[in-house]
């Protein structure tokens, strides 16, 4: 867990043991000059109700934000969704080229995969939110005094909830963020509780038509685990990395009860295209119409819309369980 620490708890920081972020996304970097390594003491002129300064335990260490950000730049499609969900949308002045939801997000040609520090700085941000420290962008932005919050890809649902809560604290929208997280937890728990688990259904989650899959150790794999499903990729050779490349023969031999496609928009995959693959036409999932076409974006992000993804999975499991 990465506790959200406000500056008003500054006196306790010296005695607390900092926990690692426990997420992918690179080695935690040194906080930028604008994000001091220790929170400033509470000022008599700064009412506690304002919530600032606030210190967040992020992927790039302790990040202290002095005042409520008014010009946020998001270089992560997931975090863009979260920022708007928690009410920080009016504070966001620019998002990256992959941030296609919500529609009103101020999409630009900024890239989270090939970050251009000069282009980012031109947006005059008082906070940059990202999920990857590519090309050492965190340190580069730190050199020019831009506060950065690195929130790497979540590996568990709890980490996803935690990051949304941290974005709420960092942007002055803590109450709304807590409300969003509470709603997500309730919805996910309800979906999991309602899932029929008497049948030991197996599944295959396809990332692309190579085909690459995802094991139960990944974030998406843990979503499926809520429904009592068994992942065929867990027994694949070279599965330790979480994303094994499977052979067509491996999938055919495993003959999963359900197939979930996360390569519909990107790669135009469907039940029909799967049936054209060698040895796949007679797979149970294809013959019994249990191929589920997912929204690629929902299947690759860990923000508030994971509930929609879980609803799709839950519906497929219920249909398969009833047949």
UniProtKB/TrEMBL annotation:
Residues 25-46 are annotated as: Disordered. It comes from Actinomadura luzonensis. SUPFAM superfamilies: Helical backbone' metal receptor (SSF53807). Residues 71-321 form the Fe/B12 periplasmic-binding domain. Belongs to the bacterial solute-binding protein 8 family. Residues 1-19 form the signal peptide. CDD domains: YvrC (cd01143). This is ABC transporter substrate-binding protein. It holds the Pfam family Peripla_BP_2. InterPro entries: ABC_Transporter_SBP, ABC_transptr_periplasmic_BD, Vit_B12_bind_prot. It comes from the Bacteria. Keywords: Signal.
């Amino acid at each position: 867990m990465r506790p959200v620490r406000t500056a008003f708890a500054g006196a306790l920081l010296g005695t607390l043991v900092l926990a690692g972020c426990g997420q992918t996304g690179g080695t935690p970097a040194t906080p930028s000059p604008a994000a001091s390594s220790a929170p400033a003491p509470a000022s008599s002129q700064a009412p506690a109700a304002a919530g600032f300064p606030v210190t967040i335990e992020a992927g790039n260490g302790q990040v202290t934000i002095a005042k409520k950000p008014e010009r946020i730049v998001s270089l992560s499609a997931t975090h863009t969704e979260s920022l708007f969900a928690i009410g920080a949308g009016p504070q966001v002045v620019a998002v990256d080229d992959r941030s296609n939801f919500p529609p009103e997000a101020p999409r630009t040609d900024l890239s989270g995969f090939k970050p251009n520090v000069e282009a980012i700085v031109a947006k005059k941000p008082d906070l940059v939110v990202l999920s990857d420290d590519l090309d050492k962008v965190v340190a580069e932005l730190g050199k020019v005094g831009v506060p950065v919050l690195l929130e790497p890809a979540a590996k568990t649902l709890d980490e996803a909830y935690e990051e949304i809560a941290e974005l709420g604290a960092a942007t002055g929208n803590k109450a709304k963020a807590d409300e969003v997280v509470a709603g997500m937890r309730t919805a996910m728990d309800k979906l999991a509780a309602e899932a029929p688990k008497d049948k030991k259904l197996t599944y295959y989650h396809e990332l692309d038509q190579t085909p690459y899959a995802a094991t139960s150790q990944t974030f998406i794999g843990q979503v499926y685990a809520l429904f009592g499903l068994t992942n065929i990729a867990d027994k694949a050779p070279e599965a330790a990395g979480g994303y094994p490349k499977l052979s067509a023969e491996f999938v055919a031999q495993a003959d999963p009860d359900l197939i979930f496609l996360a390569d519909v928009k990107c790669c135009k995959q469907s039940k029909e295209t799967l049936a054209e693959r060698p040895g796949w036409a007679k797979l149970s999932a294809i013959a019994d119409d249990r191929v589920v076409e997912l929204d690629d974006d929902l299947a690759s992000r860990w923000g508030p819309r994971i509930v929609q993804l879980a609803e799709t999975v839950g519906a497929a499991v219920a249909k398969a369980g009833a047949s």
